[in-house]
Amino acid sequence: MLGMVDGNGHPYSWSAMFNGYEPEEMKDCPYAGIPAYLDKEPKETLRIEGAVVTHIWTDDPADAERVSRASLIPHIAERPEDVIGQVDAVIVATDKGHEHVERCRPFVEAGIPVFVDKPLVDNEADLGVFVEWVKQGKAILSSSCMRYSKEFAPYRLSTNNLGALRFASITTAKSWERYGIHALEGMYPILGPGFISVRNTGTPERNVVHLKHTCGADIVAVANADMYGGFGLLQLVGTAGHAFVPFQDTFYSFKAQLQAFVDYLRTGVRPFPFDETTELMKLVIAGLMSREQNGREVFLTEIAPN
């Protein structure tokens, strides 16, 4: 479990889903929501079977000490590269996309499979690096937990009861750079590939993003800095019906996401095509480009690789 940045407590919670945790130590986790949702889970269903987190490294060494105690991780690495030769795979648990190429490079080059927290990237050049690595056969997986939301699952299976989709909306707190992918990947498996363009008419604090899809639907994704009451609110409107679905079970989505990575390690079969991640990253990048260019409509065809 490698890396820890401001505003992101995944090393605590994700490690606990593999190792279990020490309740008294976890109470001191600086992210109160983590012990709250971990404590709801029965101990017999908490852990992912057959895999453990053996090593932890964080940007601030003091964080590694705390996470190690809370999430029962036996080894603290002095440098992230020190885990090479000691582990079967690594999880890069940071959500600043512009850092991920360099955080991942030592492990990709050593042939170690990598799971990268969302978003994989936030710029065109870094996307090109990851696409090339995957073409070379490197085992790299990245996703938002929202792809695995159990609340959205029925609509991933079918929206036929709604008729042809004409409009969708989804919301998140925090920034487009770091949390826009939650909104995007929450609705992406429902609509599928085929996004055309992105127009962000908002600001860095109030992103209001209009996306067009080849199915004929318009989608609005909103990422508002302090809108903590609006994480993962999905609306779907079709020619014959509508649905409103709030995201609720954080633990389930995180565990399913990590289980998908473990299954990929065991089978070599991706849980979804990497082309989907590429398209999603283009949506993130296009949203930033549009915002910086006064709300210009940015077409995905403008963003390499094509």
TrEMBL record:
InterPro entries in the record: Gfo/Idh/MocA-like_OxRdtase_N, NAD(P)-bd_dom_sf
Coiled-coil region: none
UniProt cross-references to Gene3D superfamilies, sorted A to Z: NAD(P)-binding Rossmann-like Domain
Gene Ontology molecular functions: nucleotide binding
Domain Gfo/Idh/MocA-like oxidoreductase N-terminal: from-to ranges: 50-140
Name of the protein this chain belongs to: Oxidoreductase
Organism: Paenibacillus contaminans
